[in-house]
Specification:
By secondary structure, the protein is an alpha/beta fold. The protein is about 45% helix and about 15% strand. Strands 1, 2, 9, 10, 11, 12 and 18 form a 7-stranded mixed β-sheet that branches. A 7-stranded mixed β-sheet has the order 7-6-14-15-16-13-17, sandwiched between helices. Strands 3-4 form a two-stranded antiparallel sheet. The two termini are about 40 Å apart. About 45% of the residues are buried.
Length: about 700
C-alpha cells in the first residue's frame, strides 16, 4: 500500500488525527476529539509497526494523544483543554525541528518511499527535504503563537477563537501539504536555470541562414578554425546538411591528434615503410549506440572505414593481465587476481556498466550523442529513468572505487585508463570515466590505414558537399564588430566572412590571441587567463624488425605501448612493427622544455632511452631491434597542435567547462575545452555534433538552435 501512495498522500494521512482533533475540539467535543486522534494514530502506527517502518510524525502524534487521553479522560485534567492550542503546536514544532537537527527531517522519512535507496543520501534530495521540514516547523511555530493568543486572551469572541484554534491550524496543514508537493519542482526549476546558465550563459540567438549559398569567394555560411576531430565533425555534419563550410588549418595535415605520418628507412637495397599516429591509437564510441558510430551513420560513411578491434594488456608492478574482450570474462580474471574482492569487482562492473548504458540511453532524441537533461520535466524524470547515472555521474571516480574496494593495488589497476583523460585521476568524475569503461564493454578500435583514415573520411564528406578544407592556412584574428564575430583574418592577409564561426583551436589561444581581451567581459578574461592546460606527453616512435608478443595496447606502469600494426599489418613491412611509446608529462615539467635550449636534443634522447628501458619489461631487448626512432616532446605537440605547452587534452580536468556559445555572438567552441570536456576522439565527436546541432539541424532549420 505504501508503495502505491505518493509521499504527500501519506503526510496528509499522518495529519488526519490532528485534523479530526482540531475539528472536534473547536466546538468543545473534547472526549470525541482526543479519542478520534488517539484511535486514528493507533491504527496508523499499528500499520507502520507491521511494516517495520515507523515515522517520527506518527509516533509523536500517538504519544501526544495517548498522554492527552490519560490526562483528559482518565484523570479528568483540564491541562490539555486549557493549553492544548499551545501544547499540540509546540509538540509538532518540536517534532519538525528535532528531526531536522537529528539529520532525518520528517518529510525526508516519507519522501524516501518515492525514491530508490540509492538517492537517500543525495545532497539535493536532502536539501529539498530540509527546506520543506523547516517550513513545516515554521507553520507549527506560527500556529503556536495563534494558539497562545487564544489561550491568554480568553475574552476573544468565539468566532475568533475558532479561527485561531481550528481554521488557521488546518489551513496551515493544507498550505504545508501544497508547499511540500510544489516546492521540489519549483526548486528544480531554479536548479535547472542555474545549470542552463552555466552551460549557456550567453543567450544570443543562433544565426539564420538563407536558402541559397553565398556567391562571393570570401563568404561562407560557417567558418571552422582548426581541423581537429571536433571541428571536422561539426564541419562535416553542417556540410552534409547543406551549409557552405570552410575549414582553416595551420598544420599540413587535417585531423589534429588524429593524424598519421609515414617514414621510409633504407636498409641495404630495401626501403622500409612505417606509419605512425600523432596521438590516437584506440577509439571508443563505436558500439551500436556510440557517438562515433552515430556520426558515421549521419554522414553516410559507416562502411568506408575498416575499424579493427584492439586488445589491451597491463603490466603494473607484479600484476600482469591480458584483458579479455568480454567484460564478464575480465571480471573473472580480476577476481582470480584479487579473490578477496571478487564479489565487489562484479558489483562494481555491474554498476558502472549500468551508468555507461544509461548515459547513452537517449541518443535517438539527442542527436546520437549523450546529453544531460535539458528541461525541468526531463530533469525531474532523470533519477527514475537514469537512476545509476544520476547517482554516480558527479561523484569523483576515486570515491566510487573507495565505495567498492579496499585493495589499493586493485584501485590503481582500475584507474589505469584515467591516462586517456588526465594525469590527475583525482579530478575525474564517474561521468567522465564511464565512457572510458566503454573500452571494456564495447571495445576500442583502430582504423585501417592509420588514424588519418578517420580524419580523411570527414574531409571527404566536407568537400563532397561543397565545403573546403585549407591546410597550411593559419588564422591570425577573429574579426569582431559590435560584439559579433564577422569572420576571420588569415596570416597571409586574406579575409573571410561567415554567419557562424566555430573555433576548434586551443581555447586560451582562441580568446587571448585570435579574439583579444578588449572584446571580452572581464570575468570571462579572468576565467580564460586562469585556465590550466592539461597534461602534455613525451612520445617515442619506433620501427622494429619483428612483431613482439604483446597486445596492440599495453600499459607498463606509467608507459603506454601502442602497436596498431598488430591489427593493421599495412603500417609496417612484413615481419616488422610500428610501435609508439608514450608517457604523460605534467604541465609543471612540460613547461620546462624549450626547443631552443642547447641540451634539447640530448634531453629528448635521454628521455626516449628511459621509455624504451621501461617498455623492455614487456618487450625484452627492444633496443636491439630498432630500425627507426624519433622522439616527440611537449614543444612538438605545441608546434603541431598549437596548444599551450603541448597540452594534449585541452584544459585540465576538474575545471568548469567553457560554454559552447561564447561571449562573442556567432562564435562557437568545439573540442576538448567545452561540453562534454576531456580529450579523446569520442569526447570531441560529441562536442562537434552538439556544436553542429546548435548552429543548424537541417534544411528545415531557420536558425533555431538547441
Amino acid at each position: 500500500m505504501s508503495k502505491k501512495l505518493p509521499s504527500m498522500a501519506w503526510i496528509f494521512i499522518a495529519f488526519i488525527p490532528w485534523i479530526l482533533y482540531w475539528s472536534l475540539s473547536g466546538p468543545g467535543l473534547w472526549t470525541a476529539a482526543v479519542s478520534a486522534g488517539l484511535m486514528t494514530s493507533l491504527a496508523l502506527n499499528g500499520f507502520r509497526w507491521h511494516q517495520r517502518n515507523l515515522k517520527a510524525l506518527e509516533v509523536v502524534t500517538l504519544i501526544y494523544f495517548g498522554t492527552h487521553f490519560v490526562f483528559t479522560v482518565g484523570l479528568g485534567s483540564s491541562l490539555f483543554k486549557d493549553y492544548g492550542a499551545i501544547l499540540n503546536n509546540v509538540t509538532l514544532a518540536g517534532m519538525a525541528w528535532g528531526t531536522l537537527i537529528a539529520g532525518s527531517p520528517f518529510t525526508y522519512q516519507y519522501a524516501r518511499e518515492d525514491w530508490d535507496k540509492a538517492y537517500w543520501d543525495d545532497p539535493y534530495f536532502r536539501l529539498v527535504n530540509n527546506i520543506i521540514t523547516a517550513v513545516w516547523g515554521a507553520i507549527f511555530l506560527i500556529n503556536t503563537v495563534l494558539g497562545g493568543i487564544a489561550v491568554f486572551y480568553p475574552a476573544l469572541p468565539p468566532t475568533t477563537r475558532l479561527v485561531l484554534t481550528v481554521i488557521l491550524p488546518n489551513l496551515g496543514i493544507v498550505l504545508g501539504i501544497i508547499f511540500s508537493a510544489r516546492f521540489p519542482n519549483w526548486f528544480l526549476q531554479i536548479g535547472l536555470k542555474r545549470r542552463i546558465d552555466a552551460y549557456e550563459p550567453y543567450r544570443w540567438a543562433p544565426p539564420t541562414f538563407s536558402a541559397t549559398h553565398p556567391t562571393q569567394k570570401d563568404r561562407h555560411d560557417i567558418i571552422v578554425i582548426g581541423s581537429g576531430i571536433g571541428g571536422l565533425s561539426a564541419a562535416a555534419l553542417l556540410a552534409k546538411r547543406g551549409r557552405q563550410v570552410i575549414v582553416f588549418e595551420q598544420h599540413f595535415l587535417a585531423g589534429g591528434y588524429c593524424t598519421s605520418w609515414e617514414r621510409g628507412v633504407r636498409r641495404g637495397s630495401k626501403r622500409l615503410r612505417y606509419v605512425f599516429d600523432a596521438g590516437v591509437h584506440d577509439v571508443s564510441g563505436l558500439g551500436e549506440r556510440g557517438p562515433v558510430r552515430n556520426l558515421q551513420r549521419q554522414l553516410g560513411i559507416e562502411e568506408e572505414i575498416d575499424w579493427r578491434l584492439m586488445s589491451h594488456e597491463y603490466i603494473l608492478g607484479d600484476l600482469h593481465i591480458k584483458v579479455p574482450h568480454d567484460a564478464g570474462e575480465f571480471v573473472q580474471v580480476l577476481g582470480n587476481h584479487f579473490p578477496d574482492e571478487w564479489a565487489q569487482i562484479k558489483a562494481f562492473f555491474d554498476e558502472i556498466k549500468l551508468v555507461y548504458r544509461e548515459l547513452y540511453a537517449d541518443i535517438e532524441r539527442t542527436g546520437g550523442v549523450p546529453r544531460p537533461p535539458n528541461t525541468a520535466a526531463e530533469m525531474l524524470a532523470y533519477p527514475k529513468t537514469h537512476p545509476h547515472a544520476y547517482k554516480w555521474m558527479e561523484v569523483l571516480f576515486g570515491k566510487m572505487l573507495d565505495t567498492y574496494f579496499r585493495d589499493e593495488h586493485l584501485k590503481e589497476f582500475l584507474s589505469v585508463l584515467t591516462g586517456y583523460l588526465s594525469d590527475d585521476p583525482t579530478a575525474l568524475t564517474v561521468g567522465a570515466m564511464a565512457p572510458i569503461f566503454g573500452y571494456y564493454f564495447d571495445g576500442g578500435y583502430y582504423p585501417v590505414g592509420g588514424s588519418q583514415s578517420f580524419a580523411n573520411a570527414l574531409v571527404r564528406v566536407i568537400e563532397e558537399n561543397g565545403g573546403k578544407v585549407r591546410l597550411r592556412t593559419p588564422v591570425s584574428r577573429v574579426m569582431i564588430e559590435n560584439g559579433k564575430a564577422l569572420g576571420v583574418a588569415l596570416a597571409n592577409g586574406e579575409r573571410y566572412y561567415a554567419e557562424a564561426i566555430i573555433s576548434n583551436a586551443d581555447a586560451r589561444r582562441t580568446f587571448l590571441e585570435l579574439v583579444g581581451r578588449e572584446y571580452l567581459p572581464k570575468t570571462f578574461v579572468q576565467q580564460i587567463e586562469t585556465l590550466k592546460p592539461s597534461t602534455s606527453a613525451f612520445i617515442v616512435f619506433l620501427g622494429v624488425d619483428y612483431v613482439p608478443d604483446i597486445a596492440p595496447i599495453a600499459m607498463v606502469d606509467d608507459i603506454g605501448i601502442m602497436m596498431p600494426s598488430k591489427v593493421d599489418p599495412s603500417l609496417a613491412p612484413p615481419g616488422h612493427s610500428a610501435i609508439t611509446l608514450i608517457k604523460l608529462m605534467p604541465q609543471a615539467e612540460a613547461a620546462t622544455w624549450d626547443r631552443q635550449s642547447p641540451d634539447y636534443t640530448k634531453r629528448k634522447r635521454e628521455c626516449g632511452d628511459e621509455l624504451i628501458a621501461v617498455a623492455e619489461r614487456a618487450i625484452p631487448n627492444l633496443h636491439q631491434h630498432i630500425i627507426y626512432r624519433q622522439e616527440g616532446s611537449p614543444p612538438t605537440f605545441a608546434r603541431y597542435a598549437w596548444t599551450i605547452n603541448g597540452a594534449i587534452y585541452g584544459p585540465a580536468a576538474g575545471q568548469p567547462l567553457l560554454p559552447m556559445k561564447t561571449p562573442i555572438e556567432r562564435l562557437y567552441l568545439a573540442g576538448a575545452g567545452t561540453f562534454p570536456g576531456g580529450g579523446g576522439v569520442e569526447a570531441v565527436v560529441i562536442s562537434g555534433t552538439v556544436a553542429a546541432d546548435t548552429i543548424y539541424r537541417g534544411r528545415s532549420n531557420t536558425g533555431d538552435g538547441v
